[in-house]
Amino acid sequence: MHISAIGQDSHRFEPEGSAKPLVLGGVVIPGCAGLAGNSDADVVLHAITNAISGLHGIPVLGAVSDDLCLKKGIRDSRIYCAKSLELLTAYRLVHVSVSIEAQRPHLAEHLPAMRESIAKLLSLPAHHVALTATSGEGLTAFGRGEGIQVFAVASAEKKSGQ
């Protein structure tokens, strides 16, 4: 049996001049302000975390991530994503597809590194991680460069014997 779930997240940019780095898919992207949030605000990993949470039904972003971030000082979104993956006990993640809307920065040159980072984090072959990026053509706040929005779809199959 196969199941799929969608996750979404969005963050606005920090004010220009902020020292916070932009982190997407676990990769630091140079030359652009970071995203606002208590954590590293890795909007790509947040969307993936939400999609995986949709597979097992336990929301990780919210109370769980707030506990990790605000009480324990863990701001690395890779930890939140790994936590959600730990909760996927009856199913095995088999594919993730991610769509990023951002007018800035231009992401094409960063997609291969992001894909490798996500694949490693999720223990998936790189060809089971799909990444696309669009500028948004100025039609939304993200297309006007005010922040970044991401949608992710996670697919899993039931583990044998479950």
The major pleated sheet works out as: 4 strands, mixed
User: With helices defined by DSSP (H or I, 4 residues minimum), what is the helix count?
Assistant: 4
Uncertain ranges: none
* Radius of gyration based on Cα positions: 15 Å
Cα(first) to Cα(last) distance is 10 Å
CATH architecture: 2-Layer Sandwich
Tally of structural domains: 1
SSE order: EEEHHHEHEE
Structural class: alpha+beta
**Which range does the strand content fall in?**
25-35%
Under CATH, the topology is which? 60s Ribosomal Protein L30, Chain: A
The CATH first-level class comes to: Alpha Beta
General form: globular
Task: Let me know the number of strands.
Answer: 6
Per CATH, the superfamily is: 2-C-methyl-D-erythritol 2,4-cyclodiphosphate synthase
Proportion in helices: 25-40%
| Overall residue-averaged pLDDT value | 94
Structure write-up:
28% of the residues lie in helices and 31% in strands. The protein has 162 residues and is α+β, with helices and mostly antiparallel strands. The radius of gyration is 15 Å and the shape is globular. The protein has one domain (2-158): 2-Layer Sandwich (60s Ribosomal Protein L30, Chain: A). It is built from four helices and six strands, in the order E-E-E-H-H-H-E-H-E-E. The strands form two sheets. A four-stranded mixed β-sheet has the order 1-6-4-5. Strands 2-3 form a two-stranded antiparallel ribbon. The termini are close together. Helix 1 runs parallel beside helix 3.
